[in-house]
Amino acid sequence: MITALYTGAFHLESRDMREVPGWQEAASSLCARYDALHAMLDAGQKERLDALMAAKADIFAIEQQDAFREGFCLGARLMLEIRAEKG
Question: Is the pLDDT of residue 69 over 90?
Answer without folding.
Answer: no
